[in-house]
Amino acid sequence: MTSDADEGNVASARSLLSTVLTLHVVPQGGAVWTSTLVEGLARLDIQHKSARQAILRLSADGWLVAERHGRHARLQLTAFAHQQMQRQQHIARFEAATSDREWLVLLLSIEQADRESRRRLRRTLQSFGWGNISPGAWLTYGSASQSAVLDVIGRQGLEGAATFVRAEFLGPLPIDELIARTWDLSALRHRYSAFLERFEPMKPGTDEEAFVARARLTETWIRSFRSDPFLPDAYLPADWPGSDARQLLNGRMAQWTGPADRWWKQRSGSPSTDV
Q1: Rounded to whole angstroms, how far apart are CA atoms 122 and 110?
Q2: What is the pLDDT of residue 253?
Q3: Three-state SS annotation for 31-71
Q4: Would 207 disulfide with which of 12, 78, 120, 259, CB 3.0-4.6 Å?
């Protein structure tokens, strides 16, 4: 089982910052004191210097704008930040995955794009569960992430390079073999098992412990399973642990949200002394 210290080393300050913003700042209107964020990240084993660096980087990327109030700074999430966090909510993605879906193929022709653009696009596609089936061809099951991919393609000026096609498998390659070539289900199985092992026995006893547990649960889920294509059971190996992991996620979120929000609200009303 991963310890809290180990988890703090694995999860970046930026990743945990994004998680706290999504869980606590967005529901409160998108504004927060800098000192409140720094205090919350300190409970997650992120040092003040690293927390402030992560805040500055998100600000530089257009996610946050700061307003001075005397000695204190209040941060406001931008419209861009709200859009990005909404599209990157993989808990919501799971709910979308339970609806009727179909195979979707993305055909890309970006030979003229620079290497960095191709790398960013590839990373984005993988983060929304797309699998690369051949050079320039990507596969997913369902269209929940199509708008996010289109947004990234548009921001990179590659709108004319993408074509989305609904697909039906006609063989001769068996579909289970294609899936095995496209996604690393063995690695996903291992991560789901580790997730269950870590969070099943966790029982926070205080509001602060619930804040920490919920943030770690959410950040770990997003970081570990962003590449999951959320395939139907018919296409998954027997005894797939993903369903148990999602049930655990939903159950723990229901249990921990109330006390975690209570702890946050007690500290977010007024700024503490910035350091």
Answers
A1: 11
A2: 94
A3: EEEHHHHHHHHHHCCCCHHHHHHHHHHHHHCCCEEEEEECC
A4: 259
Question: What contacts 9, CB < 8 A, 6 or more positions away?
Answer: none
pLDDT score at 165: 87
The Cα 34–Cα 46 span in angstroms is: 14
* SS3 assignment for 181-240: HHCCHHHHHHHHHHHHHHHCCCCCCCHHHHHHHHHHHHHHHHHHHCCCCCCCHHHCCCCC
Q: Would you say how long the chain is, in residues?
A: 275
Average pLDDT of adjacent 10-residue blocks, the chain of 275 residues: 40 88 89 92 94 92 84 86 67 51 82 67 82 88 74 74 82 87 93 96 96 95 85 87 92 95 86 52
> Are the CB atoms for 77 and 25 separated by under 8 Å?
yes
Q: What pLDDT, on the 0 to 100 scale, is given for residue 93?
A: 55
Residue-range domains of the chain with CATH: 4-83 (1.10.10.10), 103-166 (3.30.70.240), 185-268 (no CATH)
d(CA 96, CA 172): 30
Q: 202 near 71, Cβ under 8 Å?
A: no
**Parallel/antiparallel/unpaired status of strands 162-166 and 131-134:** unpaired
Q: What is the pTM of this model?
A: 0.81
Q: 141: part of which helix (H) or strand (E)?
A: strand 137-141
CA distance 96 to 144: 7
Instruction: Please state, in angstroms and rounded to a whole number, the distance separating the CA atoms of residues 23 and 17.
Output: 10
* CA nearest neighbour of 213 among 168, 169, 261: 261
pLDDT of residue 7: 41
